[in-house]
Design a protein that fits this description.
The structure is a homodimer. Chain A is α/β, with parallel strands linked by helices. Helices cover about 50% and strands about 10% of the residues of chain A. Chain A is built from 19 helices and ten strands. In chain A, strand 7 (about 325-330), helix 13 (about 345) and strand 8 form a beta-alpha-beta unit. The longest helix of chain A is centred in the first third of the chain and has 25 residues, at about 15-35. Chain A is elongated, with a radius of gyration of 26 Å. At the A-B interface, helix 1, helix 2, strand 3, helix 11 and strand 7 of A face helix 1, helix 2, strand 3, helix 11 and strand 7 of B.
Chain lengths: ~500, ~500
């Protein structure tokens, strides 16, 4: 792609002025149209050092109302990059509906660096490409318009520009070792870039290579490309989605582990107390190890109302230090969370190294409550199985231990617990009308749970179904499973 | 305070169990009451290494529904602390209405460290105390219940505990040099702590010293103190505010710079073009210096509708790199922003070192639109002058350059601009019904502006009033003023 560029291309001052004068208001108008229609847009800019990226991006930004865009230049020191999964630092900066996110530096910089340093089979290089592809497809499926620009100059031009900047005392400090490293290893960068373009160019998130020698031509190409893409989108009928990811078909839901549970499993009070003390002590020890060795842990809880999630979580949390764990209670999304991809609010909750995050409900809401209550369309929740598996794969590759619990009780037990809550003044507040309404949809929730367990049980992030009729039995099974999963990871 | 403690105090297992069993549900109930009434609560925990803070805080947290609290353990590496003002990393974590923020580590740790290392006249030590006092008073004025706990053990007990932990291979790594440094310099820590208690203990944010030798007693003291304070608050009538900061009286608004402006000031087109090019070039040079030397810059714009804020901001931004500047457009607060102190949304927009933040409207909205439209009560907006001065003082002490512009046009000019917008299809969207409504309140806005200029012009953060009838004149005055302010700081 880069080899065949005509880097000598130029634009006359007069032509430039005419073109830009008509593009500027047009871009402003399209921004207001996108806002009205709630269409998110994500623009990515990468380029070689000295390609003039800053000034070129500014020429684009100045066409727009600052209330509608945010600019992200994500510069994270090497040693801190490793503290959080990539999705944490990038997914959270993706645009909300009607807004524009412009990246002056993003995941591709990390991927490029890794590709140049290591070979193309390096896990971090591959994981980066994976994240890029998955994230971009997920956002495109969600209606986001994505364009990726690469600003290119040739080796001699780069050298010339860096030298000029070095000559001027006012800007000499701004030329970095990184810039010169690029120039000296120009071929290696070009090879890495070609590889990245090949693997991440797609119909819904295309790369546009911009000849960067002449700033007027480059500005014009950027502005007109964005304007063209926005215009195309604005004239396409309905909510156009570029990605056509293959939707999984509903498989035969003949049998499920849910239908074969032995809910009579029980545990006596004395045994419970002994076991609880034993496992809480063990978990506290494992918590310190996990912190010490920097392993992130996700323990997530789903289940029918009153299945005992809260009680199980409390017993887990009792043995932990608050600085090492956090309980993340997940309710229905807030107004601003709805303005984003549904996974957005979880990206910012992903645990850093050494941290234990306990999710009281989770991203699985998409294929449970949102499916049953029709908050998500069938297209959306069917797509979610794949999206969720991709999210968890991303975490596993980062070294995260994932434990997922489905707590199951039978209908009679649920009724008993509802009645007990109703009569206990200290617990009454826990029982809401919604609980009763959900109970009427018991079968629909079970169908959703069966399909979820089938489609999202993976080797590295398996589900544990917990027989919940006996609270004692369930709590011990939960804490034991968490301990075992961590022990396995520590080996 | 610390000298007279009875650190030998203990609690019997049986007594503990009885007390805690009644406190736990009581605290849960109070949490729900606070949520219903929208009362925010902030709890701070500091303590000596080995005082068992983690476990004690956990005993409190487990009484509560995780949906209603967040735990903050703010550990920021030394070299990064200096990148942002303290308010950025702490103010943003203060509780929203009805919620509880628990700090396991916060600003006091930074202050303590500084106090031990340096003398009590050290600027960072003093600025920290200043921030603590101002922030706590501002939050209390806004209705927040604040309690600060210090967990204390004596020197021998600390030594014993650290040694025990070191003996166990599972926890030996967790004993840090910092812990031993504390033990060896115990007296110095105690002296610093006494100084800090003395300077930051207040009726509305009291310090409670907890004897930490016996964990049962400590847990009981913490739980019962919180329960008592919450109960007091819940039974006090109305929205009880603990702080009684003296409200400034409306001064005599006899004369104001606003009434003596020469709005006929003008600049020809050719001069404008020359000057603009000159100052844009200069600003670009200064931008690089500011970035290089790590100076944060705030340029904020207020003014009557159509006074030309947008145009002036655009001319400033044209010469800058997007990675070094950001335009922060300030509209009416969003739903979740209203759940916090009104300054909260600005705390998270404070510029880091080397960054230029351009505010299109700002925190002054409190004393302008919110005053005129009665969105804030007189008590609230009168209090705001002091709060804003404190915010800006905090920034100046951090080394921030602050430039504040009030853009003024006369009523006729405003009408001309409104009509021009109405007739231009490319600008029509800029004119809203609100603009016409605001125009009717011209005099009220002028009164508010006069008082604002009077009360918030300080030596280090002065207002610049810009004669705006001529756009050319105004834009040059703005960019020149910004250049001069930065130049002054660079000297």
């Amino acid at each position: 792609m880069l080899e065949t560029l005509d880097l000598g291309i130029k634009m006359k001052k007069k032509d430039y002025k005419d073109k830009i004068e008509s593009l500027e208001p047009e871009l402003g108008k399209l921004q207001r149209y996108f806002r009205d229609k709630g269409i998110p847009m994500m623009l990515i800019f990468e380029g070689l050092g000295g390609s003039g990226k800053g000034r070129l991006v500014n020429n684009l930004l100045l066409c727009w109302d600052p209330r509608g865009y945010s600019f992200h230049y994500v510069k994270i020191p090497e040693e801190q990059r490793e503290r959080y999964p990539m999705l944490y630092r990038y997914g959270t900066r993706t645009p909300s509906r009607g807004n524009i996110s412009v990246f002056g530096r993003c995941w591709y910089r990390e991927i490029i660096d890794r590709g140049v340093e290591k070979d193309f089979d390096d896990p971090l290089f591959r994981n980066g490409l994976n994240m890029a592809r998955n994230l971009e497809r997920q956002l495109a499926d969600d209606g986001t318009l994505i364009i990726k620009f690469f600003l290119h100059i040739d080796r001699d031009e780069q050298k010339k520009r860096l030298k000029e900047r070095e000559k001027d005392p006012a800007s000499a400090w701004s030329v970095t070792d990184y810039d010169w490293h690029q120039n000296k290893n120009y071929d290696s960068y070009v090879e890495t870039l070609e590889k990245i373009f090949q693997e991440t160019d797609s119909e819904y998130a295309p790369w546009v290579i911009v000849e960067g020698t002449d700033w007027r031509f480059a500005t014009y190409k950027i502005l007109s490309t964005v304007q063209g893409a926005m215009k195309d989108r604005s004239s396409s009928t309905g909510q156009s989605r570029y990605s056509r990811s293959s939707l999984p078909e509903n498989g035969d839901m003949v049998t499920s582990v849910l239908d074969e549970l032995d809910l009579s499993k029980d545990l006596g009070k004395d045994d419970y107390k002994d076991e609880l003390e034993k496992y809480q002590e063990k978990l506290h020890f494992l918590e310190l190890e996990v912190f010490h060795r920097g392993i992130p842990v996700v323990a997530l809880f789903e289940g029918i109302d009153a299945a005992g999630k809260g009680g199980a979580i409390k017993r887990l949390a009792q043995s932990l230090y608050p600085r090492n764990y956090e309980v993340v209670p997940v309710g229905s999304p807030g107004v601003w969370e709805k303005e984003h991809h549904y996974l957005w609010r979880f990206w910012m909750e992903l645990p850093s190294r050494g941290k234990i995050k306990i999710f009281d409900r989770s991203w699985y809401g998409r294929v449970l409550v949102e499916r049953v209550e029709n908050f998500a369309s069938p297209e959306e929740w069917k797509r979610a199985y794949r999206e969720i598996n991709e999210l968890e794969e991303h975490l596993v590759r980062f070294g995260t231990v994932i434990v997922k619990f489905w707590l199951q009780i039978d209908k009679k037990e649920q009724l008993d617990r509802f009645m007990a809550r109703k009569e206990d003044p200290a617990k009454e507040w826990k029982l809401t009308d919604e609980d009763w309404r959900n109970r009427e949809k018991w079968d629909a929730y079970m169908d959703a749970a069966r399909e979820m367990l089938l489609r999202t049980s993976t080797i590295n992030a398996p589900w544990t179904v917990v027989e919940g009729n006996s609270k004692y039995y369930a709590r011990i099974k939960v804490i034991r499973t968490v301990c075992e999963a961590i022990e396995k990871a520590l080996k």
